[in-house]
Structure formats: C-alpha cells, structure tokens
C-alpha cells in the first residue's frame, strides 16, 4: 500500500496492490499512514471508510485540496460596442467613454500536503489615452471626452477623440446618413443622394452635387454646388464656393461666390460677396449687401435680386415692442392685485375660496410673464440687428447689370429695362435709386 500525490498537490490517491493490505485496519490506521506520507489536508474520511468496508485493489482518491482562484485581469468596459465597425462615433465634451476596472488579487488555495498554493494576481488593464480624452477628476476609473468629436479606438489600443473627421475620397449614398458632431473634411465630392450633417465646419475639396447638406458652422467648398436642382445646402454660418449651378443654398451668414451663380436660388442672412463673379438667372434673397461683377446675362435670363425687407422687419419690431409694453403694464397690475389680496388674507386670516383661487392664478401669471418678456426681448434684439443690416442693404455691380433683372430693396421695386454698367442701387424713401459706382 502506498500514497500517490498529483504534481499540482491537489489530489492524493491510496494505491492498494492487494486487498489483503487493508485487513484489520481502521480509519485511524489509514489516516496515520497517509499523514506519514505528507497528506494532511482535505482527507476524505467517508471514502476511506467505504474502502475498508469493501476492500479492493486499485487507486482511490483519499484527499483533495482547494485549488487557487487566480485574480482577474483589469479590463476596460466601453459605453459602445467596440466590435461594431463604424466610421463615426459622436461624443460630446464631458461624455463618459469607458470605465476601467482594476485587477483582482485572487484567492490562495491549499494542497493536500497543507502547502499554500499561491493565486496569480490579475494584471492591470492596458490603458492608452490619446488626444482629447482624460480620466474624470472625481473618479479616476472613468474615461471621458474633453472635446466634441469622433471617438476612435486605434489598433494599438489608444483611445482618442478627434474633433476633425477626414474622408479621403467621395461621400455617396453607400455611406448612409453622415452625421458628425465636429468638423468634416472631404477630399473628394459629396455625391448625389448623399445626406450629410456637420456640427462644426465643412471643407469639401471637390463639388457638392444633388445632396442634402446641413452645416452648423462655416462651409468652404473648393469646387462648387452643382446638379439638377435636387440638392439643398443649409449653412448656419458663412459659406464660400467657386460656383453654384441650378441649386438651392441657404446661409445664415455671408456667401462668397468666386466665379458664378447660374440659375441658383440663394437665401442669405448676411452679405453676398461676388466681386469677381457673375450672377445669371435664379433668385437671390439677401438681408445685407449684394456685390457682383455682373448680374443677368447677354441672353437676358430672368434674374431676381431681393435685398433687405426692412419694411416687414420694422412692422414686426413694432408689434414685438408693443407686446413687451402691454405685458409690462399687465404685470404691474397683477402685482397690485396680489398685494391687495395678500393684505386681505393677513387681515382676515384666510380668503374665501374664489378669492384664494384668484390669488393663486395671479401668482402663477406673475411668475410666467417675466419669462415671456425675456423671450420677447431676445426677439426684439434680433429684429433690431436685422433692421440695422437692412439699413445697409444695397446692390453693387462692378460690371454690367443686364435687362430683365428684377431688383427689390427694402420693399422698393425696380425692373431693369436696359443694360447698365458700374452701378449702385439703394432704397431711398421707398424708391430704388441708382448711382454710378465712382460717385460713392
């Protein structure tokens, strides 16, 4: 009879070569024997007793230790599915990107010999922070973005947020809807059918075709905006392009045209600057000044230029100002009524039900009206700015303005019936007046 211990020291076996070896032995005899062979932990008394009651030859498990439980490695849990391949993952400044979990120390085991079996310690996660990401000040296990942009997990494991997304080629319908929170740079074209939304600025080195594009910042188009009139470009800031043909452009800021605008529909909240460009056909609506090399063409394409509209803005400004005054007076009256009812409540201890209800309603209006007044003041300020812009509304043509061009400045209208050179058109007392360019 002998004892065999496994190399990992987690099991011990009693090797019985002849069942006669077990004759006249008790449990204590076997335990003492295996103790003498170094087995002192996890002894299986029931199995030994069963063997003694039914002696047989072979190997029998008579002791078992506890294996060590190794510590778990630290890891990074992302707020998005990293297995999903995608071009754009928009994140905002301060947004949580991931949580870093620390390693665990593990639990030691014990062998059948009583020896402590050391558990392996977990390894810390490899965390590589690139640009525009950081640990949260209040919790250094949380990774956050420090900038709006595209969240990128590089092949080397670096986590970064890029405020600029570059597309080396064209954007077409195969991209699906492109919606990026930062600045988008397209080295090629934005093809027909594409849909693009940009949270900051847009730079396109090629053309924009019959696509739907919205830009929260400024847009710089190296080529032009061309197609069959099915495109729409809406820029909340300024836009600069070489040419626009058969397309629809809306800009809250200024529009710079370097070569030509042909049969285009342009709505501009600032100025149109086209000193070296021609505007042929289409409709231009602009709050501020329009300047161009020439307007219309030798074929006398119908061209419409509408500038200002100060008359409508002034009318709206009057209504807003009157409403501010009315609400201000109404608020003072409400305060007086509240004061009177409050005095009665103090004197009487309580008010009749209908007067108490009236008091509560008045107090509600007292709190709501200032909010409405604040909104109206903002609207009034914006209208004042628009009126100032309209006050500078004029059309400057450095070359020729051709007949069949319609001009409207601050509501005053003029049909151009013959070609004119070097002209400035302005509104004066409801009439469009022309002066020679060198006279100004």
Automatic annotation (TrEMBL):
<dbReference type="InterPro" id="IPR046865">
    <property type="entry name" value="FapA_b_solenoid"/>
</dbReference>
<dbReference type="InterPro" id="IPR005646">
    <property type="entry name" value="FapA"/>
</dbReference>
<protein>
    <recommendedName>
        <fullName>Flagellar Assembly Protein A N-terminal region domain-containing protein</fullName>
    </recommendedName>
</protein>
<feature type="domain" description="Flagellar Assembly Protein A N-terminal region">
    <location>
        <begin position="2"/>
        <end position="154"/>
    </location>
</feature>
<dbReference type="Pfam" id="PF20250">
    <property type="entry name" value="FapA_N"/>
</dbReference>
<dbReference type="Pfam" id="PF03961">
    <property type="entry name" value="FapA"/>
</dbReference>
<dbReference type="InterPro" id="IPR046866">
    <property type="entry name" value="FapA_N"/>
</dbReference>
């Amino acid at each position: 009879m002998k004892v065999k211990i496994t190399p990992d020291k987690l099991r011990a076996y009693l090797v019985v070569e002849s069942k006669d070896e077990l004759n006249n032995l008790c449990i204590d005899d076997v335990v003492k024997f295996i103790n003498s062979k170094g087995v002192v932990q996890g002894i299986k008394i029931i199995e030994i007793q069963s063997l003694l009651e039914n002696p047989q030859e072979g190997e029998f498990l008579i002791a078992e230790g506890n294996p060590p439980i190794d510590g778990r490695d630290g890891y990074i849990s992302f707020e998005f599915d990293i297995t999903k391949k995608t071009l754009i993952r928009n994140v905002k400044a301060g947004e949580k990107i991931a949580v870093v979990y620390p390693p665990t120390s593990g639990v030691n085991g014990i062998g059948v010999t009583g020896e402590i079996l050391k558990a392996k310690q977990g390894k810390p996660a490899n965390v590589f922070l690139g640009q525009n990401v950081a640990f949260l000040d209040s919790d250094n296990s949380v990774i956050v973005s420090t900038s709006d942009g595209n969240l990128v997990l590089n092949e080397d494991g670096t986590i970064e947020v890029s405020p600029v997304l570059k597309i080396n080629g064209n954007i077409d319908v195969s991209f699906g809807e492109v919606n990026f929170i930062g600045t988008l740079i397209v080295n090629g074209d934005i093809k027909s059918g594409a849909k693009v939304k940009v949270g900051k600025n847009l730079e396109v080195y090629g053309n924009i075709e019959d696509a739907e594009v919205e830009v929260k910042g400024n847009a710089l188009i190296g080529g032009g905006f061309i197609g069959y009139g099915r495109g729409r470009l809406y820029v909340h800031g300024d836009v600069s392009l070489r040419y626009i043909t058969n397309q629809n452009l809306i800009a809250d800021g200024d529009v710079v045209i370097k070569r030509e605008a042909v049969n285009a529909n342009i709505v501009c909240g600032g100025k149109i600057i086209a000193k070296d460009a021609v505007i042929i056909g289409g409709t231009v609506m602009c709050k501020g000044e329009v300047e161009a090399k020439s307007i219309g063409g030798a074929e006398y394409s119908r061209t419409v230029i509408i500038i200002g509209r100060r008359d409508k803005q002034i009318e709206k400004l009057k209504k807003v100002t009157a409403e501010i005054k009315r609400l201000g007076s109404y608020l003072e009256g409400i305060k007086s009524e509240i004061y009177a009812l409050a005095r009665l409540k103090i004197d009487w201890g309580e008010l009749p039900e209908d007067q108490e209800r009236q008091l509560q309603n008045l107090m509600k209006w007292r709190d709501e009206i200032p909010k409405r007044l604040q909104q109206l003041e903002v609207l009034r300020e914006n209208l004042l700015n628009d009126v100032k812009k309209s006050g500078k509304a004029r059309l400057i043509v450095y070359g020729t303005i051709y007949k069949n061009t319609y001009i409207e400045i601050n509501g005053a209208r003029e049909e151009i019936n013959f070609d004119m050179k070097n002209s400035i058109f302005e509104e004066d007392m409801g009439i469009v007046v022309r002066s020679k360019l060198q006279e100004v």
